[in-house]
């Protein structure tokens, strides 16, 4: 779906990619947000990894290389799965598996040569070559995962506590009190459920 409304609530590119599956993973309410290569481009554009022009140019290219574009979509989903496994493991105090780290390392090996010094909003900074390859989005995502794994923020990675949600985020609150991906959705739903169960208990008395 071209107009699927992605949410960017995690504080890290890699986790925002992990959050392109809605609902609880492996449960009946699981929702796939990346149904096509075009969805991936839309995600990249809204995330700010691609400009309008770059996304339009990659979309045009994908129409002539549909097989390759589908392969990139599958590769993105493989990367997404490993990112989810790794950070979900860290969030629950576990060590991630070597096979998931291998997927990130393989993508770094494949894509880091595309890094460049670019002129940014506050001077020169690390950036990327012009994204002209169908898989140009993958390296920045893998790099974001590597940056997060090796940063102090790793201990602040959490998974939404709602049983019907598997979204990941970096808790940037001072007292580490964030429990839900989004107060408006999971937070409210949880509050409502607690209110209803209190009411039922009250009526049963
Ligand atoms: Zn949630």
Strand order of the largest sheet: 1-2
List bound small molecules. zinc ion
Low-confidence stretches: none
CATH architecture: Orthogonal Bundle
Strand segment count = 6
Cα distance spanning the termini: 49 Å
Q: What is the domain tally?
A: 1
CATH superfamily: Jann2411-like domain
Pfam family, one: zf-CGNR
InterPro entries: ABATE, ABATE_dom_sf, Znf_CGNR
Domain Zinc finger CGNR: 157-199
Protein name: Zinc finger CGNR domain-containing protein
Task: Give the key terms.
6 strands; 7 helices; two-stranded antiparallel sheet; Jann2411-like fold; two-stranded antiparallel ribbon; single chain; 205 residues; mainly alpha; binds zinc ion
What would a concise description of this structure say?
By secondary structure, the protein is mainly alpha-helical. Helix content is 51%, strand content 11%.
Describe the protein in words.
The chain is 51% helix and 11% strand. With 205 residues, the protein is mainly α. It has one domain: Jann2411-like fold (Orthogonal Bundle). The strands form 3 sheets. A two-stranded antiparallel ribbon has the order 1-2. A two-stranded antiparallel sheet has the order 3-4. Helix 2 runs antiparallel to helix 3, helix 4 crosses helix 5 and helix 4 packs parallel to helix 6. The model has no long low-confidence stretch (mean pLDDT 93). Bound molecules: zinc ion. The site of zinc ion has 7 residues, from loops. Pfam families: ABATE, zf-CGNR. It comes from Sporolactobacillus shoreae. InterPro entries: ABATE (IPR010852), ABATE_dom_sf (IPR023286), Znf_CGNR (IPR021005).
């Amino acid at each position: 779906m071209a107009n699927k409304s992605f949410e960017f609530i995690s504080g890290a590119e890699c986790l925002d990619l992990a959050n392109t599956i809605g609902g609880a993973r492996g449960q009946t309410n699981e929702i796939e947000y990346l149904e096509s290569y075009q969805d991936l481009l839309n995600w990249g554009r809204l995330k700010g990894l691609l400009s309008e022009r770059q996304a339009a140019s990659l979309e045009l290219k994908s129409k002539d290389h549909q097989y390759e574009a589908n392969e990139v979509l599958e590769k993105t989903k493989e990367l997404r799965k490993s990112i989810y496994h790794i950070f979900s493991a860290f969030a629950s105090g576990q060590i991630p598996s070597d096979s998931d780290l291998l997927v990130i390392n393989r993508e770094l090996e494949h894509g880091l040569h595309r890094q460049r010094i670019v002129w940014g909003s506050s001077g020169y900074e690390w950036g990327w070559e012009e994204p002209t390859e169908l898989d140009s989005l993958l390296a920045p995502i893998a790099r974001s995962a590597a940056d997060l794994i090796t940063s102090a923020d790793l201990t602040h990675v959490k998974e939404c506590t709602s049983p019907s949600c598997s979204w990941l985020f970096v808790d940037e609150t001072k007292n580490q009190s964030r429990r839900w991906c989004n107060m408006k959705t999971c937070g409210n739903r949880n509050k409502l459920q607690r209110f209803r169960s209190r009411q039922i208990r009250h009526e049963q008395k």
